[in-house]
Amino acid sequence: MTFTPMTPMDTQTAGDKPLPDTPAITLHNTAYRDGAAVPLILVHAFPVDHHMWDTCAPLIADIADGMGLDRFAIWAPDMPGAGEGPIPGVAASGRQAPDGAYLDALDLMTDAYAELVNTAGYDRAVWVGLSMGGYVVLDMQRRHPDMVAGLALCDTKASADDAAARANRLRIADQCTRDHTVNPVMHFAQPNEGDSSIKRSDAFISQMTDWINVQTPEGVAWRQRMAAGRPDLNDQLESITAPAAVISGECDPSSPPSQMRPLAEAMTHTHAAFTQIPDCGHFSAVEHPHAVAQALADLMARVQDTERTEDDQQ
Which CATH number is 249's domain given? Predict the structure, then answer.
């Protein structure tokens, strides 16, 4: 079918479980298509925005339609400070640690994603997170488990930053704001030894460079401070009962299969389908959108089967 992206939905404020005396965070949402079935929410990676899903999202729709699935909405909200996502002020970011990390920001952002879905009339969604987006998905399981109809973790981790990684994030955040530049994160667009052939290609380097260059230094810094202050979420894996998927690029230097497969194995109360993609680095949905789309369409099929079974039992 020919796919025409929908125009972005209106920006909505959110905060289903606001922390005390904290203003709501605002999200900017892009809807690739509408639908009445349980929606699919795609949460992007750092340091880019929802555009990383532009090729994968229509492929998910095409494959799902070919499988005869009920039509479901596909959304890709921008994180605060990403793309057109407004950057929260200090008050809206919650508590700030002495080193500058935002201790409540992940929770506040996750609540905003939950409220976005609730406001549209959905009780649950299937949550997909790539890299930093995976932090949101696991925090959704932690804060709003009843809203998780299914989830997928792509090229991500459940652990919090160690001291060195946290300090490096905060150093980058300070440099971005001090020098008003996104150069400290431009290495995401540069190939390294052992990277996939796609990441080493001129097309990937050019696209990733363009995506990073349109980000604001302040938005990059906010996301780094949010991630630096996030909690360890490994304890959430065992609590997952909804259909799940774990996707890993074989050449991913930060979340390789040797680290991703244990996440799937730790989901002992559900079946977590594991997909390992050859010649693929950290940005699997960009590097191999067909493979990721197939895995996510398969997940949606499992979710819809589960929904029908639950309906029959009522």
Answer: 3.40.50.1820
